[in-house]
Write a structure and sequence with these properties.
heterodimer; A: about 350 residues; alpha/beta; seven-stranded parallel sheet; two-stranded parallel sheet; 13 strands; about 40% helix; B: about 375 residues; Glycerol-3-phosphate (1)-acyltransferase; 2 domains; seven-stranded mixed sheet; two-stranded antiparallel sheet; 16 helices; 9 strands; about 10% strand
Chain lengths: ~350, ~375
């Protein structure tokens, strides 16, 4: 008997990709895709059930489908189709509570995978440079998606305590980037000119969406020999990129602004509803965040295909060139080099022969 | 074709006088356990060569379709082939420097350089920041370095130094001392106070210089990676002490550095710095102003607030940095790090040794300024 996998939040493209991918796995019999709105993308052959996880109907869905693996991907920072922040918070927190309540009642659930985020560590100047899974956050996120993620993880821990027979895996993803992903950071990088915080050059880490799909698969199946796929894991590509490097590789100029100005401008655009430039986003772009991925490698047995730099390169490829494409800049340097070579004008010396 | 023309240059350079720096760079490359092949560290001496760089380097950010553009870009008048060392040393050297400077500029402008998890930018540190600090180190403070051989060639080690001078110039000078004098060209990774990472610009530079927050997690991670870590456990108590208490070591924090070293089995190298105490003789402390600004102290020196920015110029004292005999910590059982008695004893031992060396150096010193 194969697995019955229930995936939440499938109206998002990333979750849609995951649904399509996991159906191809031999040990999976059936995939049940759940979301409050029907997805625009196709879901392969998965059964889509329109259900709002904030309602108790999710318990019925779970009972009727007899799902043994629940992949909770409906923990997100942005609303789908212009919903308000309040709806997002509702879905994140209340949705998780309902889903966990349903799982607790369901005797068939054997495995729970939750997509969380490294946002739970917050971002502060007094934080250690590299977070491990056990590092306590120096300043707990005060609001926004990061706080949702902290609360979601709290409920998941409570669930794991009450149902010790269920394997619970919390995956804390670094900033997910890729050709199709639509995250606040991706929309930030799409700005023609990147506003940055003056005097800070944050360290950023990215994880590629292909790797996200892959690690979610590992977490949803039986653990491979010698690995353990329950617990909390940081998921990020190797290496680190500074924001300045990102902007140069993207070819987008930066405008350094003083921190108060950035905070003010952020709240202005948030009020106007232009982008979701939340305070936690500003904190990330001020202090940066780097997580240790030793547990991911050693315990979970997952090695990402893309490093942080490769992820970013793939992202850059999928976007158009910026105002200052790196090729143009290096071409300019080469022209200067050519000039200086000609300028120094050493006479063509005869070779020894 | 382009490669063939370049080979003599490379040959020339490795044989030429620039021995010290390239060797240092190579050694750093090999020390970082395979994080990046040493190839990157090589500065491409000729722009014509740059076109070939993306294939060799680990600059993974380079997309395949960028490459044709790069290669098509520089249609350079290729320099005529020359035999190496044909007696055109000065101009050749200058040209090489211009070329390597341009290839450096090119890498910086396109963002194709690497930083480690802590934000340490080895290339920027080596090529720019150290060159900025070196004149201060060599010409202004005329630092004498003793006992550099006490720093191991490889592996993690914890350098523990006294802290003084109102502004943490002593840490920076210690970094230059290790960088320029250690035969293996090791890089010192300093642990800095949290204030450093609050201040704009300062935090950015500190990260790029390889500094990180003074906390157990970071220190252990760095030592575990086999890095050379520098710490000044006196902290603000040491750096902000009045002039009358100069060269009197303050309490060494809570001895956290000892348990960190014990846990990693890294030797502790006591380091005594003489000369930093007198750069800003702190005769008073405007506590109210400090509290207003959020600083731990606000120094009043004979010159500082009174002469404005001119007063912020440090006195040109003569410095001596002495690295002492390493104190091994690998002979202790694993539970030793949890033994407060042992920790206090080791802390005292380190402190005594630094204090003792300080007094010895002070006796030997002819004058504060010479």
């Amino acid at each position: 008997m194969g697995q019955v996998v229930l995936v939440t939040g499938v109206a998002r493209r990333l979750a849609g990709r995951f649904v399509r991918r996991i159906q191809r796995d031999a040990q999976v019999d059936r995939v049940v895709a759940v979301d409050a709105v029907p997805p625009e993308h196709h879901l392969g052959g998965a059964d889509f059930i329109q259900a709002d996880i904030r309602q108790a109907t999710i318990a019925r869905v779970l009972a009727e489908t007899g799902a043994d693996t629940v992949v909770h991907m409906d923990v997100t920072g942005t609303a789908l189709g212009g919903g308000s922040r309040a709806t997002v918070k509702e879905t994140n927190v209340i949705g998780t509570m309902q889903l966990l309540g349903a799982c607790q009642k369901s005797p068939s659930v054997k495995r729970l995978v939750v997509k969380s985020s490294t946002n739970v560590y917050g971002s502060a100047s007094r934080d250690p440079a590299v977070f491990t899974e056990t590092t306590p956050a120096k300043s707990l996120p005060s609001g926004g998606f990061a706080k949702d993620a902290v609360e979601v993880e709290g409920y998941v821990r409570g669930f794991a305590r009450r149902r010790p027979d269920v394997a619970v895996c919390v995956l804390r993803f670094a900033n997910i980037l890729g050709p199709t992903v639509d995250t606040p950071l991706a929309s930030y990088f799409a700005l023609p000119v990147l506003p940055t915080v003056f005097g800070y050059d944050p360290r950023l880490q990215f994880v590629h969406e292909d790797d996200v799909i892959e690690v979610l698969r590992i977490a949803s199946h039986e653990a491979r020999r010698g690995t353990l796929n329950s617990g909390t894991f940081n998921i990020a590509g190797d290496g680190v990129l500074l924001l300045s490097q990102c902007s140069r590789r993207l070819g987008r100029p930066t405008v350094p602004l003083l921190l108060p100005a950035v905070t003010w401008a952020g709240s202005l655009v948030r009020t106007l509803g232009m982008t979701d430039f939340s305070p936690e986003q500003i904190r990330l772009l001020t202090h940066g965040r780097v997580v240790a991925t030793d547990q991911m490698r050693d315990t979970l047995g997952f090695t990402p295909k893309y490093t942080t730099a490769e992820t970013f390169a793939d992202f850059v490829r999928s976007r158009g060139p910026g105002l200052l494409p790196p090729e143009a800049l290096s071409g300019a340097v080469d022209r200067i080099a050519a000039l200086s070579l000609r300028g120094s004008g050493h006479p063509p010396t005869q070779s020894a022969n | 074709m382009a490669d063939a023309k370049v080979i003599p240059f490379d040959d020339d350079r490795s044989r030429g006088g620039a021995g010290a720096r390239p060797s240092r760079r190579r050694s750093t490359g090999s020390r970082r356990s395979g994080a990046e092949p040493a190839v990157v560290r090589e500065v491409q001496p000729l722009p014509a060569r740059v076109a070939a760089a993306p294939e060799g380097g680990p600059e993974t950010g380079e997309s395949p379709q960028d490459r044709p553009a790069l290669q098509a870009g520089p249609s350079l008048p290729s320099p005529p082939a020359r035999e190496p060392g044909e007696g055109e040393g000065v101009r050749g050297g200058l040209e090489r420097r211009v070329a390597s400077g341009l290839s450096f500029l090119r890498r910086r402008l396109t963002g194709e350089y690497d930083v480690d998890d802590f934000g340490y930018d080895a290339e920027l540190t080596d090529q720019v920041l150290m060159s900025l600090l070196r004149p201060v180190y060599e010409k202004y403070f005329r630092v004498d370095v003793k006992g550099i051989e006490n720093i191991p060639k490889a592996g993690g080690a914890l350098i523990v130094a006294n802290h003084s001078g109102t502004l943490p110039l002593d840490g920076l000078m210690m970094q230059v001392a290790v960088h320029d004098h250690h035969p293996a060209g090791r890089h010192l990774r300093l642990l800095a106070a949290d204030l450093v990472f609050v201040l704009p610009v300062v935090n950015e530079l500190a990260r790029k210089l390889g500094h990180t927050l003074a906390c157990t997690e970071d220190a252990e991670r760095l030592l575990g990676q086999g890095e050379l870590v520098g710490v000044m456990p006196e902290g603000f108590k040491g750096i902000g002490k009045p002039f009358s208490e100069r060269y009197k070591l303050q309490r060494f924090g809570r001895g956290g550095f000892v348990s960190t070293a014990l846990r990693q089995g890294a030797p502790i190298i006591p380091c005594s710095i003489v000369g930093a105490e007198e750069i800003y003789p702190m005769i008073g402390n405007a506590k109210t102003l400090a509290r207003l600004l959020g600083f731990p102290y606000f120094p009043l020196t004979p010159t500082f607030p009174w002469l404005g920015p001119l007063g912020a110029i440090p006195l040109p004292t003569k410095w001596t940095i002495q690295f002492g005999e390493p104190i091994p910590t690998d002979g202790y059982p694993p539970e030793a790090a949890e033994d407060p008695m042992l920790m206090f004893n080791l802390t005292d031992q380190v402190r005594e040794q630094i204090q003792h060396t300080l007094y010895k150096l002070l006796v030997q010193r002819r004058s504060v300024f010479f």
